[in-house]
Every structure is written in structure tokens, then in C-alpha cells.
Amino acid sequence: MHPDRGEDGQVGVLVIGYLLVSLLVVTVVLAVSSVYIEHKKLLSAADGAALSAADDYSIDVGIGGSAVGGATPLPALRDSGVEQSAAGYLAATGAGARFAQLTIDPATGAPDGRTARVVLTAVVRPPIISVLVPAGIPIVARADARAELTR
Fold it and tell me: Positive or negative, the Cα torsion across 82, 84, 88, 94?
């Protein structure tokens, strides 16, 4: 018997172990990257919807004042108007086809009457691990846009 023969076959086990660990790392990186990219896309859609909603304002001249009498006119937003404008923007851009289970969150609205806040939720199904997470991974994106009047 040769003294070095007791170590035969041990390298194969190590190679298989390292290969499995490498595949696991690649799978996790791929899944995290997929969720990150989808979140950035959803954030872009929320930004566009918030800008669209902020542009859909009415003019408020203040209580008992008029634009001629010295009161400063201000843009006014309403919760229902922000939600309708955001829904119209998402429909016009086809966002519903790009995201799974895209919804406008109830937190969408105009918290101070001048800022349009749009909160969107969707579900991401990352490649490979979607078998482990069949319902997908929920993501949320929030964007604010302020309505301003300029001369």
C-alpha cells in the first residue's frame, strides 16, 4: 500500500462542494439583482405618476382673497384627483403589463394639498428561486412630486 493513497478521492468531494456553493451564490445574486432592478423600474413608474398627478392641479386663491386683491394663488391637489391621475398615467404607459399585480396603494394622495404622493405595489418573481417563493416577493415604491406655480 502506498502512503499517499489514503487521500485519493478527497479533491472530488471538495470540488463538488465548491461547485454547489458557487451555484448557490450565483442564484442568490441573480435573485437579489432581479428584485433590485424591478424595484427601480417600479420607482420610475411611481415618479412619472407623481409628476403627472402634480401637474393636474386646480388653483386655490386662498380664503376670502382673490388674485387681484393680493392673495397668492396656490396649486391645490385632492386625494381622489391624485389617484385618478396616477391610474391614468399607468394605463397610458402600459405599466400594468410590465409589473405583476400592480396596484395603487391607499396611501396615494395629497397629504398637504400641494404634494402628490404615489405609492405603488407589485410582485417580483425572481428567476430560479421562484420555485421556492411561488407567491413572489412584494415590492413597494413611493414617489412625491410638489405642484408649484411660477411666473
Answer: positive
- Rounded to whole angstroms, what are the CA distances from 126 to 27, 37, 63, 81? 10, 11, 52, 34
C-alpha cell at 149: 406655480
DSSP state of 6: G
Give φ, ψ of 76 to 5 degrees. Answer: -125, 130
Cell of 85: 391621475
Domain range summary for the chain, segments of one domain joined by +? 9-146
Q: Is 102 exposed, middle or buried (0-12, 13-18, 19+ CB in 10 A)?
A: middle
Question: What's the angle, vertex CA 87, arms to CA 108 and CA 61, rounded to 5?
Answer: 65
* Model confidence pLDDT, tens digit, residues 90-118: 999 999 999 999 999 999 999 988 899 99
CA distance linking residue 49 with residue 42, whole number of Å: 10
The pLDDT value recorded for residue 73 is 81
Cα–Cα distance for residue pair 47/63, rounded to 1 Å: 31
